[in-house]
Automatic annotation (TrEMBL):
This is succinate dehydrogenase. It is an enzyme of class 1 (oxidoreductase). Its EC number is 1.3.5.1. Belongs to the succinate dehydrogenase/fumarate reductase iron-sulfur protein family. It comes from Corallococcus macrosporus. Its cofactor is [2Fe-2S] cluster; [3Fe-4S] cluster; [4Fe-4S] cluster.
Length: 268
């Protein structure tokens, strides 16, 4: 590369429009920044560059932008945000593939904490609701666990890759800031733990947790969740599977209620 080419490359910049909001109750606004272009850069590395020098295109020094990130390899799920209007992981969003100016906004289905950071508690509370875990019976050696078929293992492995990023809730038209629809990820986790040989012991509890208000019946089948999941988890299949389980449980409840009524009314 000759000197002229090198200086052309180094003078190339990337423009970002970033949502700024000091706290959840204050109105927000956009700040525009330019960062030097680096081939192969991702959105997080550009945010780090802006953090080192938080000066807007108007030359105004502002507070550094706040965002969440930890693993930088699509594992922790903390960097989900709206990038050019579509929810995605900022650590795997490559600048070369995005149209400029690159607009960064926080997810809108979760309360904003500051700038691009949101409070994803809603998801963790939903995982508690469906008991998204396998109960451990003590810490002593129980010997080898029950065998699982390879077919089950291959289904469960994909479900277990959920990183609780919240993208599926963000893209879902049924999820709003002021309702309590549980969303696709916890439904899929209920399916995962219900398939586990030990998790099966709590399967009915998990399925019942999907029956109440804000449960699976609020799904409007928009299928946006499956389009945005960074792990390509078959969320619509999980919803269909759990819908069937909920229906079976409802029929069982009706049957037992009828039996109880017959028994209490006696033989004559
Ligand atoms: S199911 Fe996919 S989109 Fe939803 S939280 Fe898990 S990884 Fe994110
Ligand atoms: S930083 Fe962990 S998923 Fe992006």
């Amino acid at each position: 590369m000759d000197t002229a080419q090198a200086s052309a490359v180094s003078s190339k910049t990337v423009t970002f429009r970033i949502w700024r909001q000091d706290d959840p109750n204050k109105p927000g606004h956009f700040d525009e920044f330019k960062v030097p272009y680096t081939k192969g850069a991702n959105v997080i590395s550009c945010l780090m560059e802006i953090q080192r020098n938080p000066v807007t295109v108007e030359g105004k020094k502002v507070a550094p932008v706040v965002w969440d990130a930890a693993c930088l390899e699509e594992v922790c799920g903390s960097c989900a945000m709206n990038i050019n209007g579509r929810v995605r992981m900022a650590c795997s969003a490559l600048v070369d593939k995005l149209q400029q100016p690159i607009t960064l906004e926080p997810m809108k289905k979760f309360p904003v904490v500051r700038d691009l950071t949101v409070d994803r508690d809603r998801m963790f509370e939903s995982l508690k609701r469906v008991k998204g875990w396998i109960p451990v019976d003590g810490t002593y050696n129980l010997g080898p666990g029950p065998r699982q078929s390879q077919k089950d293992q291959s289904v469960m492995y994909v479900l277990s890759t959920c990183i609780t990023c919240g993208s599926c809730l963000e893209a879902c038209p049924q999820v709003t800031l002021d309702n309590d629809f549980i969303g696709a990820a916890p439904i899929s986790q209920a399916r995962l733990f219900n398939m586990h040989p030990t998790g099966k012991l709590n399967a009915e509890e998990r399925t019942r947790a999907l029956m109440g208000p804000g449960g699976i019946q609020d799904c409007g089948k928009a299928q946006n969740c499956v389009k945005v999941c960074p792990k390509e988890i078959p969320l619509t299949t999980s919803i269909a599977v759990m819908n069937r389980e909920v229906s079976k449980l409802m029929i069982k409840d009706i049957f037992f209620k009828e039996e109880e009524q017959k028994a209490s009314s006696g033989p004559g």
